[in-house]
Amino acid sequence: MKKPAALYYTGCEEHHYQPHFLDVCSLCQRPLAHNHDIFMYRGDTPFCSQECRQEQIEMDEANERKWKIAASKISSRTKTETPTKETDVNKAVRNGTVAVA
Questions:
Q1: How far apart are CA 53 and CA 46, in angstroms?
Q2: For residue 30, what are the contacts with CB-CB under 8 A and spacing of at least 6?
Q3: Could you give the angle at the alpha carbon of 50 between the alpha carbons of 48 and 51, nearest 5°?
Q4: What is the pLDDT of residue 89?
Q5: What is the pLDDT at residue 68?
Q6: What are the residue ranges in the chain where pLDDT is below 50?
Q7: Chain CA centroid to CA 35, Å
Q8: What predicted TM-score, i.e. pTM, was given to this entire model?
Q9: What positions does the domain FLZ-type occupy (predicted)?
Q10: Whole-number Cα distances in Å, 76 to 71, 79, 83
């Protein structure tokens, strides 16, 4: 009869595999071969091919154009808004130097 092996708690949790950021293409999720070229974009984003990288660049540029258009619409709306309070319309403002004695 065999004695059961003693088990000791070492304080280590079970390790879960976390993939390295260079394991798969950021666009199509294909595995990146370690003996082939990896195409990088914006410093730390890997792609399996120039085509995948270019597609991501084009998507980012399209999103940036949308944001700029939306921002310009918002800024043009705020410039053309008229005051809603009657007191704001009737205020007089003078420019110049004020001397207080």
A1: 8
A2: 24, 48
A3: 95
A4: 59
A5: 92
A6: 7-9
A7: 30
A8: 0.53
A9: 20-64
A10: 9, 5, 15
